[in-house]
Amino acid sequence: MDESINELVRCLRKKGRNDLAHLIVGSTSDIEDTTQYGSYLNRYLSAFSICTPLDQYRQLQKLNENDRALILTCVKHIFPKSEDLEIGFLDFKILQNENRIKENESLAESWIERSNSRLQTGKSLTAERRYAEALSSFQECIELSIKAIFLLLTDSYPRSHEFKDKEFKDVLDRIPKVLAHLEFYKLYLYSKFWSNFYTIAKYGLENFGVGAEKLFGPEEAELAKLHSEKCYHAARQLKDYSDNPW
After folding, report:
1. φ, ψ at 49 (rounded to 5°)
2. For position 161, what pLDDT does the model report?
3. Per residue in 181-219, is it b (16+ CB within 10 Å) or e — as a string?
4. Which of 60, 102, 110, 157 could bond to 147 as cystine, CB 3.0-4.6 Å?
C-alpha cells in the first residue's frame, strides 16, 4: 500500500476527477532525481513516478497534457517545494511484480474472510458455553486478521503464531493516517496477550491434569471476542481502504 498514491487519489477526487483517480488506484510511487536544476542553488528537480498495472499504464500513456498537468499539480500539493525536494516532472511506469501483488491482495482478502468466519464461530461456541473452543476460534481470528494486515502493508507476513516487536513496528509505520483512529498498536498487545494461551486453550494445563474447559469461562471468552472483533474490523477497513482510498 502506497500512501502517496492514496493521497494523490484523494486530491484528484476532490477536484472532481474520479476517472483519473481510478487509473492510479493500486499503483506504487517512486521519486527519482533528474539532472535538471530547480529553483534552489545547486539543487536538482525530482521526477515523481507512478508505477501502475499494465492496463492502467496504457490508459495513462494516452492522457492529454492538461490531465498530466493536473496530476502533477496534485503531486506538488502533496510534496510542497523545498530545498530538500522539488518535484518537476511526472512519469508513468509499468508496475513490476504485478501478479505477485495481486496474489497477495487476494490472499489477504481470503484471510480476512476466514478471520470473520472464525469470529462468528467463536460467538456461536460462546453461546453454547464451549468457552475454551471459542477462545481458540477468537485467537485464530486475531492471527488471521493481523497476518492480512502485514500482507497488505509489507507484502509479507510472519510464519509463526507470534509477532516480533520490530516486525510490528514496521507495520505501524505504514498505517495510513486516515485509519489511525483504529488504534492498530493495540492489535499488537492483543496478539501478544492471547498467544500466551494458544496451546492452553487447546490442551489445557497438561502438567496439572487440568483440561482447557475448566480454565476458561464467559469472562475470558467475552474479552477474547472484543479483541478479535477489533482486529477483524481493522483488517477489513484497511483492505477496503486499499481497494478504494477515501
Report:
1. -105, 135
2. 64
3. ebebeebbebbeebbebbebbeebeeeeeeebeebbeee
4. 157
**Three-state SS across 177-190?**
HHHHHHCHHHHHHH
CB atoms within 10 A of CB 107: 15
Regarding pTM above 0.85, the answer is no
Chain Cα centroid distance, residue 221: 27
Domain 98-243 grouped into CATH 1.20.120.330: yes
CA nearest neighbour of 116 among 3, 203, 228: 228
3-94 — its CATH code?
3.30.300
- Which sign does the torsion angle of CA 199, 237, 113, 157 carry? negative
Say if strands 87-94 and 44-52 run parallel, antiparallel, or are unpaired: parallel
The span from the CA of 27 to the CA of 199, in Å, is 41
pLDDT above 90 covers a percentage of the chain that reads 80
